[in-house]
Inverse folding.
């Protein structure tokens, strides 16, 4: 059975493209509030679950041992754009643990921010691991290793204590035992585990509420949400939806994009977790799907709605600046 069409792309008033996908909205007791499409088949959440991967950093005491600030904690759960402040903050995290960029095992790539990429190229420099969108997370991994008095070398390996702690935290918060047959290697070289959207959404509901978590884990989850709400720029970057949305909603929403059309969010005031995937892996589809779900459940005033919609459901323009179309969520996604 095919997943339903959840996003339509218009050219003029006609539908030009359609995106199918699946969505799970779950409460902290594991109750499924909304199910669209297949929410049982495991999918790779990838970067969407960086908040889960950061839990051991706080629970272990390593974040406090090295004096990590909320800004640095926000970067530890980010997929940042490689802008100068992101790079400097990642390096600052490493320095607090007495390390430097040579410890990072995430690989190098050019900043995803066009402005930052052009500036770096114009300066004659090449990208370093600090420019990797996962460098904040990896800097946190190095801190976790040092906080556990472990050698950080090889921290990306499944058998390293850092990855064992992260796997255990993910399994516990999602209530799902990861299977080796569903293990892959992420773009930044750490293990990534597939899980059903229903389980991923449960993890975000628990992140939102602390319900079902031990007190130390619930406290860590709350600190992560608060850090992201206070420093939304660190979670993504200039003009990106995660940053724009959390600037608007602050502590009302924690949201995080993943790769290949995955998007997740936590809504603390409603005690809900959201996990979704666009079948074709399109980021524009996943973004529009998440916006539709937030519209369905989260009250917004007019100013917030207009600002949010302008980013989440952009008007499509051609190279002459003419409006040629739009992206919209389907009626089934919006509950109409």
């Amino acid at each position: 059975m095919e997943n339903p069409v959840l996003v339509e792309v218009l050219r003029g008033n006609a539908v030009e493209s359609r995106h199918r996908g699946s969505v799970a909205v779950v409460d902290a007791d594991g109750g499924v509030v909304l199910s669209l499409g297949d929410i049982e088949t495991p999918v790779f959440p990838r970067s969407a679950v960086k908040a889960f991967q950061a839990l051991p950093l706080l629970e272990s005491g390593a974040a406090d041992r090295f004096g990590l600030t909320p800004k640095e904690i926000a970067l530890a759960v980010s997929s940042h754009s490689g802008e100068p402040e992101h790079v400097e903050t990642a390096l600052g995290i490493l320095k607090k643990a007495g390390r430097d960029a040579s410890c990072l095992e995430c690989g190098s790539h050019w900043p995803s921010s066009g402005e930052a990429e052009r500036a770096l190229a114009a300066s004659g420099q090449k990208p370093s691991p600090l420019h990797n969108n996962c460098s904040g997370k990896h800097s946190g991994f190095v801190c976790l290793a040092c906080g556990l008095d472990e050698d950080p070398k090889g921290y990306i390996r499944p058998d390293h204590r850092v990855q064992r702690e992260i796997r255990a935290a993910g399994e516990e918060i999602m209530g799902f035992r990861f299977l080796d047959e569903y293990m892959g290697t992420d773009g930044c070289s750490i293990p990534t585990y597939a899980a059903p959207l229903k389980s991923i959404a449960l993890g975000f509901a628990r992140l939102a509420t602390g319900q079902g978590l031990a007190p130390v884990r619930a406290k860590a989850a709350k600190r992560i949400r608060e850090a992201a709400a206070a420093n939304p720029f660190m979670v993504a970057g200039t003009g990106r939806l995660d940053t724009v949305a959390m600037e608007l909603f602050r502590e009302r929403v924690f949201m995080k994009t993943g790769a290949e059309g995955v998007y997740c969010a936590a809504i603390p005031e409603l005690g809900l977790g959201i996990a979704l995937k666009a079948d074709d892996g399109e980021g524009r589809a996943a973004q529009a799907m998440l916006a539709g779900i937030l519209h369905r459940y989260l009250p917004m005033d007019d100013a917030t709605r207009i600002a949010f919609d302008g980013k989440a459901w952009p008007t499509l323009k051609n190279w002459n600046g003419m409006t040629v179309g739009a992206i919209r969520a389907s009626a089934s996604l919006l509950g109409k």
Notes: The mean pLDDT is 96. The beta strands are 5-11, 14-27, 32-36, 183-185, 191-193, 254-257, 262-267, 272-278, 315-317, 323-329. The longest strand covers residues 14-27.
